[in-house]
User: Fold this.
Amino acid sequence: MNRQLIGDTLRLLQAELSPIAGIKLPFSPAEGEGLLSVMEGYNLEYSRKLHFMGIYIILVQAARRHMECSADHPDLIRNVLDGDYLYSFYLQFAIKHRELDAVVFLAPFIKQQQIRIANGDYAELDLITLIGQFLNAEFKKKRRSEKAIEQVG
Amino acid sequence: MKLHEALNIDISTVNLEIERLVTRDKDVPGGSPLAKGVLELIGSGGKRLRPLMVIVGSRFGRKGQGRRTLQLAAAAEFIHAASLVHDDIIDDAKLRRGSPALHTQTGVLSAVHIGNYMSARVIELLGKHAGDKNQYVHDLSAIATAQLCIGEYQQMEHAYDYDLTLEQYLEKSLNKTALLMATCLRVGALSAECTEETAAALYAFGEALGIAFQIQDDLLDFTQSSETLGKPAGSDLRHGQVTLPVLYALQDPELAARIRCVGPESPEADIEDALAAISGSGALARTEELSRRYLEQAAVIAKQLSSYPAHADLETLIAFFAGRDR
Assistant:
C-alpha cells in the first residue's frame, strides 16, 4: 500500500511536470515512510495522501537542488533552474489539487528556511512535522465545526 | 518624461511598498546581509515596468487601484528581481545595472537563497488573504514563474543552436519575458474586479508588448555600448544565445558561415567578426520591423478597449516601448 502510494505520487508528478524541464525525481520509498506514518493518524482519502506526498517530494527535491548550488559545481545552472522550476511547480500542484490552505500554512516556514540558509545555517526544514501540524490544525478545526453543528441541531 | 509620469503613477508609493516587503518582514533583522542585499538590488534602478503594468491593469476594473493592487505591484517587482539574481548566477554575470551582481558579494549559495526568500515572501504575503475566489493572486508566483523557467530551459537547450526556428525563438521569448508582463496586467485588472473578458484582452496585449520588449532587448545587445547596457555588449552571442538578429543574419549564406563558427570555445576575434557582420547586415532593421509588428498587434488590442478611459495608458506603454532603443 505504502509503496503503491509513493509510486502513484511519483507517476502523478512526472505526468504534471513539464517535459521541457526534463526533471527526474529520485525518491526512494524509505524517504516517504515518515510522512506516511504521520498521515496514518488522520482519516485522509487516498487522493489527499497522494497530494501531500507530492507536495513533500517537490519541496524536498527543490531544496536539495538549490543546496547543490556552488560556483564550482558542474551542474550549477541546471540546479538553479530545477530548484526554481520545482518551487513554482509546487504552487501550481497545490492549487490544482485544492491544497491552498497547506501552502498558506507552510509559506512562513519555507521563507524562514531560505533566510537561514542565506545566513549560513544549513539545517534541513522538518517538513514532515510541519505537514503533521497542518493536518492536526485542520482536524481540530473540523471537529470544532462539527460540534457547533451538533449543538445547533 | 518618465514612463511612470506619463502614466500618472506615484512611483514613490510603489517603491515604498516594494521596500516594505522586506523592511516589514519580522523574520528579517534590519541591517542583516539579506535585508541589505535585497534593498540594494531593488534600489539599484529599473523602470518598475511590471508594477506599472499591474497598476495600469487595475484601471480597467470597476474598483480601481486598491491595497491589493499595490501589493501585487510590489510582488511583481520582487519576483522579477529574484529572477534577475538567479539569471546572473546562470549567466555568470559580474555586473547588474552597473554594480557588482549579488552573488559576487554573498557567494552563490547565499544569493540563490536570497532570491528564494524574495519569491517565498511573495507567496507568504499574498497567500494570507487569498481564498478560492481570488486564486489569481498566485498566478505571478505559480504560472508566470514556471513559464519563466521553461523559457530558460529552452534557451539552455538551444545554446549555439543555429538551426533554431523563428517559432522556437518566439515561444522562448513568450515564456521568458512576455508572460510575466501579460500576467501583471491581468492580475492588476482582476484585483480591481475587472471582467474576465477584459482581463483576457489585457493579457493578450501584454503578450504582444512583452515579445516586442524581448526583441528590442536582443537588438540593444547589438546597438548599445557596454556602459549603457551595464554588461558587455554582444554578450548574448558570447553565451550562445541565438537571438532574432542572429536568426535573420543566418539566412544570408555568407554571414551564416561566419556565425556558425562561433561556439563555446571560440576565440574573441571570431566572435567580434560575427558580431560586426551581423551589425553591418540588414538583420537589425528586420529585427526592428518584427518588433514594430508586435507593437502594432498590441495597438489593435488597445483599440478594442477604447471604451475604457485607461486605454490611453496602453497607448502610452506602446509609445514607450516603441521609443526604447532610441
User: Anything to note?
Assistant: The radius of gyration of chain A is 17 Å. Residues 59 and 144 of chain A are 31 Å apart (CA to CA). Chain A has one domain: 1-151. Helices of chain A lie at 2-16, 29-39, 46-67, 76-96, 100-118, 127-152.
